[in-house]
Amino acid sequence: MIVPAVLSAFAVCWLTLAWLLRRDRLPMDHPNERSLHATPTPRIGGLGIMVGVGVAALWLADGSLLPVVLAAAVLTAVSLLDDMRGLPVALRFLAHFVAAVACLQVLGLSGWALLLAILAVVWMTNLYNFMDGSDGLAGGMAVLGFGALALAAWLGDAPVLAAFCASIAAAALAFLRFNFPPARVFMGDAGSIPLGFLAAALGIVGVRHNVWPWLFPLLVFSPFILDASVTLARRGLRGEKIWKAHRSHYYQRMVLLGVSHRQLASAAYALMLACAALAFTLRALPQYTAWLLALWAAVYLLIFLAIDRRWRLARNEY
Fold first, then answer.
1. Which residues of 210-240 are buried (b: 16+ CB within 10 A; e: fewer)?
2. What's the burial of 269, exposed, middle or buried (CB within 10 Å: 0-12/13-18/19+)?
3. CA distance 222 to 128
4. pTM, entire model
């Protein structure tokens, strides 16, 4: 069932998006002062991804992942409604919290582990959405991030988990056909919210089944985790309203500095691949964890400092 699940995820996402893009009156993302795009673009791409993932889950028909699949489906429905009609922020956060609590309790977490896992899942759910603002970026993170999880699960003798992660990567790859710069469709909340949830929830599933160490999924998805977390912390320290839309993420500043969406996507993919390679190295050589983490931290520090410096120079020019 593994190969049919992966192939069906890719094909169903592709066909769904091809069909949707021929429809009229799609929910549109209209440019504003905080956008990085200049043309109104449909934001329905996430629906194609999650329909493909749902079909793959039916092929696999494995009860061990049922809580994760059901919670992701609920978040997809809520987020699609938000894309189409708009929902209050408080209601969206409540849905994220309830989905995380219900899923993690069914998975068997309790006590402090449950509390920390809820915070991690809710944060990952939202930060993935924050990072979905440039053509090809979030889709590429899904392909490479869940692809890395799939390979690690296969190597860790967890074939069902490997197949499900590979199916998510396959659906995201089909989405990239329509989203790679210049994008014909955006992911929207219906894609970014459940993908963020799946990244965190499946990461926890792998840890609980000793498929990978807890640092593995953090390293794999670190390009999104660190950009969003550092940006949020800096905005909070400046007294800004952290829940408001903005253009201060590092990837956003790169585009504002003149980097094209295609160039940004290519650079981000290289960083994602490097992070995945580092995660596999840590998995194979755990005795070098401290050295690898120091290297990882140094690379990110240099990247952030370089962007900050160029940003300050650009502002001084004006």
1. ebbbebbbbbbbbbbbbbbeebbeebeeeee
2. middle
3. 11
4. 0.96
Q: Based on the structure, what is the number of domains in the chain?
A: 1
**pLDDT surpasses 80 at 242:** no
191 to 80, 126, 258, 270, 312: CA distances (angstroms): 8, 11, 27, 23, 34
Q: How confident is the model over 62-114, as pLDDT tens digits? A: 878 999 999 999 999 999 999 998 899 899 999 999 999 999 999 999 999 99
Residue-number span of the structural domain to which 164 is assigned? 2-317
Q: Give the pairing of strands 41-42 and 28-29.
A: antiparallel
Instruction: Using alpha carbons, list the distances in angstroms from residue 290 to 227, 280, 286.
Output: 22, 15, 9
Distance, in Å, from the CA atom of 122 to the CA atom of 311, rounded to the nearest integer, reads: 30
Q: How many residues does the chain have?
A: 318
pLDDT digits (tens, 9 = 90+) for 129-180: 999 989 999 999 999 999 999 999 999 999 999 999 999 999 999 999 999 9
